[in-house]
């Protein structure tokens, strides 16, 4: 059935200014790292994209290597964009990245101008786009001069193939240098994409205050610690969960971790929230965080996440109780 986006899609969320730029982002964005591969059912992908957009999530985050196979998430997104979302292109923020191994040989990985600009071209072709809204360098490359990598990002903006640029997984000192270079090149760093959640708080001390000071936005990935900060694993590891499907996540789900999650869940329940929703409310308490970049394997998870963005803020006492649990379980 042809898609007709919900008329009230912008009535639910308060959009947040991305640093000191002119761009606002939804408090919850949807990432396509997982569950958009060639092995995933296309109708489930479609349902998730429609649910997101119908509720005001207009930012979709991709990377050249998302799949498997690498590139397939961009192809699948491109297909659903053509079929459903294309009439709304000017309402969408679509991001992609390059920085991990993508093709064989010396030019398919890293941070060279050769790799970044070829990869961006390939991403545009896979998605059927003339431009992306945000193009990121996915991770620092110590073997390439930072000037070259930032020069490639600035070129992407000048050529019209990216409207804005960002960096991901860069430590604070390198972020500062990258932002200075980009500013000098006339393509200001719009946004940083680090990992942040209740179980990984290292950006709080240095990176987050620095981004705030430089006027750079911050979109945090894995805000639910890949699903740990939800009701998914409170009683075990379901077969259809990310941890149940293999990979390293199951190893993190020790008895101690589960006890921690159960105590956090009890606080969430007292607030009338799911643990996933409370985890997102907790993240969005920082004004320097522009958006929480979730993943999802079902439309219901997206609806649940949205309640975290619209819930009442956590009180000082609730924040202290959460800190107490996190400290106790280290
Ligand atoms: N820049 C980088 O280096 C980098 C790295 C990682 C990710 N990212 C970006 O960040 C995005 C999100 O990462 P992520 O997928 O790790 O995020 P996440 O939100 O921490 O985890 C998503 C997973 O949590 C579970 N989940 C989500 N909502 C739930 C709910 N309401 N109730 C129960 N379970 C729920 C689902 O797992 P199940 O499958 O078990 O249902 C879902 O796939 C990626 O898609 C990507 O765009 C970027």
Radius of gyration: 19 Å
Quaternary state of this entry equals single chain
CATH architecture: Alpha-Beta Barrel
The largest beta-sheet arranges its strands as 3-4-5-6-7-8-9-10
Q: List each distinct ligand once.
A: NADP nicotinamide-adenine-dinucleotide phosphate
What gross morphology would you assign? globular
H and E string:
EEEHEHEHEHEHEHEHHHEHH
The structural domain count equals: 1
Strand content: 5-15%
Q: What is the count of DSSP helices, taking H or I runs of 4+ residues?
A: 11
| Secondary structure: helix percent | 25-40%
CATH C-level label? Alpha Beta
Distance between the termini: 50 Å
List how many beta strands DSSP finds.
10
CATH topology, what is it called? TIM Barrel
Mean pLDDT: 97
Determine the CATH superfamily: NADP-dependent oxidoreductase domain
Estimated structural class: alpha/beta
């Amino acid at each position: 059935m042809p898609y007709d986006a919900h008329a009230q899609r912008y009535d639910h969320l308060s959009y947040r200014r991305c640093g000191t730029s002119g761009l606002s982002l939804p408090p919850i964005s949807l990432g396509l790292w997982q569950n958009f591969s060639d092995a995933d059912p296309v109708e489930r992908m479609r349902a998730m994209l429609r649910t997101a957009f119908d509720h005001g999530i207009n930012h979709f985050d991709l990377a050249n290597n998302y799949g498997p196979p690498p590139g397939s998430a961009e192809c699948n997104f491109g297909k659903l964009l053509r079929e459903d979302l294309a009439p709304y292109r000017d309402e969408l923020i679509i991001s992609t990245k390059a920085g991990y191994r993508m093709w064989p040989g010396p030019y398919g990985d890293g941070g060279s101008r050769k790799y970044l600009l070829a990869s961006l071209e390939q991403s545009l072709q896979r998605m059927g786009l003339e431009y992306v809204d945000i193009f990121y360098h996915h991770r620092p490359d110590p073997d390439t001069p930072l000037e070259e990598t930032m020069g490639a990002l600035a070129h992407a903006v000048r050529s019209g193939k990216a409207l804005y640029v960002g960096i991901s997984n860069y430590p604070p000192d390198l972020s500062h240098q990258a932002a200075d270079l980009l500013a000098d090149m006339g393509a200001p760093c719009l946004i940083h994409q680090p990992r942040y959640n209740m179980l990984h708080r290292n950006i709080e001390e240095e990176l987050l205050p620095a981004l705030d000071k430089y006027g750079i936005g911050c979109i945090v990935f894995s805000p639910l610690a890949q699903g740990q900060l939800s009701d998914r694993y409170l009683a075990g590891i379901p077969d259809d969960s990310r941890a149940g499907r293999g990979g390293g996540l199951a190893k993190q789900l020790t008895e101690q971790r589960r006890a921690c999650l159960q105590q956090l869940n009890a606080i969430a329940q007292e607030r009338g929230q799911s643990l996933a929703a409370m985890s997102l409310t907790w993240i969005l308490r920082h004004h320097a965080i522009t958006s929480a970049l979730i993943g999802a394997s079902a439309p219901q998870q997206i609806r649940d996440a949205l309640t975290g963005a619209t819930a009442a803020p956590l009180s000082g006492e609730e924040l202290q109780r959460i800190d107490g649990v996190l400290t106790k379980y280290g």
